[in-house]
Amino acid sequence: MGDAEGRAPGAPQGSAFTPEEVMRYSRHMIMGPVGPVGQRKLRNASVLVVGAGGLGSPVALYLALAGVGRIGLVDFDVVDLSNLQRQILHQTADVGRPKILSAQESLLAYNPHVTVNTHGLPLTSDNALEIIPEYDIVVNGADNFATRYLANDAAYLSGKTLVDGSILLFDGQATVYRPGEGCYRCLYPAPPPPGLVPSCAEAGVLGAITGVVGSIQATEVFKQILGIGEPLVGRLLLIDALTMEFRMMRVRRDPACPLCGDAPSIHELIDYDQFCGTPPLAVAEGAAVAAGAHA
Amino acid sequence: MPVRVYIPTPFRRFTANREYVSVEGETVRAVLDALDDAYPGFDHLVYDREGRVPAHINIYVNNRAIDELAGVETELSDGDQMAVIPALAGGAR
Ligand SMILES: [Zn+2]
């Protein structure tokens, strides 16, 4: 599976927090809705982050800082100089390295008490139903429609909540799909024809908006783990950095949805490149080597 | 009856960088037609070859998708705000 585990030696797994951990997490633990019980929930939680890039970086960072016990990263790409304008887990010296490795290193440097599992492969129809069930919650930070539909379908079929976020130019979108309460296909039944909606590589993206959307996704993960607040379920948050307006649109489960509707036709994963009319992802050479090294 | 339409940043190049466009129209379809009159080419964004709103675009009246209402025939009232929102794919690269 290309899995690899990173954990600092000597990090305690037991039920009691060390004085160092109590101090580290004190600004969370002092809050009533978190407390020691909530902090333990965070430590016992596992979250898969799809994509260690613009969105995955701030999401994984805040999860690690907060002591979410096990964080999984799926990414096959290597760090490119053009990533550094926004992808805060990677630094200048990481250019050319697999993103999962520089991300894992950064996260453990911030908090050695967490475990970072790396999946140095593209998420595919062949591995998604093996990787996703290993985690409690899935966060979507994918940069292409094929992976977005794949993550959506695989999370739903695995009965996992998907915390979704996307960005382009000065815009961001965020929502949470809980199985049975609507999904990405309910919101967007089909992807745009190839070439119609540009990617960030083609059109650009404001670095700071990835932090805004990623922080919102991380917040939704905390709420989900702690069981507090009103989740961003059934609502689509639209963020416009230029007007600095936030809008909340209603999302409903579509009874005609082929995945989560009343008479679903999708019962297993499909060919998402074919569905999106896009060529299969090319795995960068360096990343493939790294994945092999950790298989 | 003028209706205010919110244009997100990916579509703003079609509206001379305007965040909001006010046009006349009694229904969503009439507003979309008026938008295309004001900004020729806008209809290519919101209609596919069969003349339907493509599946990767949601049109909202206030905060509700027109799929929940009467589609492009949804009637508009004074003060309604429309928004034309595409799926975005960015995240990692
Ligand atoms: Zn659905």
What report would you give on this structure?
The complex is a heterodimer of chains A (295) and B (93). Chain A is of the alpha/beta class and 295 residues long. Chain A has a single domain (24-288), classed as NAD(P)-binding Rossmann-like Domain (Rossmann fold), CATH 3.40.50.720. Helix content of chain A is 34%, strand content 17%. Chain A has twelve helices and nine strands. Chain A has helices at 19-24, 26-29, 35-44, 56-65, 99-110, 128-131, 145-157, 184-187, 200-203, 207-226, 272-276, 285-293; strands at 3-6, 46-50, 70-74, 115-119, 137-140, 161-168, 171-177, 235-240, 245-250. Chain A has a nine-stranded mixed β-sheet with strand order 1-4-3-2-5-6-7-8-9, sandwiched between helices. In chain A, a hairpin with a 4-residue loop joins strand 8 and strand 9 (245-250). In chain A, helix 4 (56-65) packs parallel to helix 5 (99-110). The longest helix of chain A is centred in the last third of the chain and has 20 residues, at 207-226. The radius of gyration of chain A is 18 Å and the shape is globular. The model of chain A is unreliable at 8-12 and 284-295 (pLDDT under 50). With 93 residues, chain B is an alpha+beta fold. In chain B, strand 3 (57-61) and strand 4 form a beta hairpin. Chain B contains two helices and five strands; from the N terminus they run E-E-H-H-E-E-E. Chain B has helices at residues 28-38, 42-46, and strands spanning 2-6, 20-24, 57-61, 64-65, 81-86. The radius of gyration of chain B is 13 Å and the shape is globular. Chain B has a five-stranded mixed β-sheet with strand order 2-1-5-3-4, covered by helices on one side. At the A-B interface, strand 6, strand 7, helix 9 and strand 9 of A face strand 3, strand 4 and strand 5 of B. The site of zinc ion has 8 residues of chain A, from helix 8.
Average pLDDT figure of chain B: 93
Calculate Rg of chain B over CA atoms: 13 Å
The CATH architecture of chain A comes to 3-Layer(aba) Sandwich
CATH class of chain A: Alpha Beta
- DSSP summary: helix tally of chain B: 2
User: In percent terms, what proportion of residues of chain B is strand?
Assistant: 15-25%
Shape designation of chain B: globular
Strand order of the biggest β-sheet of chain B: 2-1-5-3-4
Give the topology string of chain A: H per helix, E per strand: EHHHEHEHEHEHEEHHHEEHH
Mean residue pLDDT of chain A: 91
Classify the beta-strand content of chain A into a percent band.
15-25%
Low-confidence stretches of chain B: none
Straight-line distance between termini of chain B: 43 Å
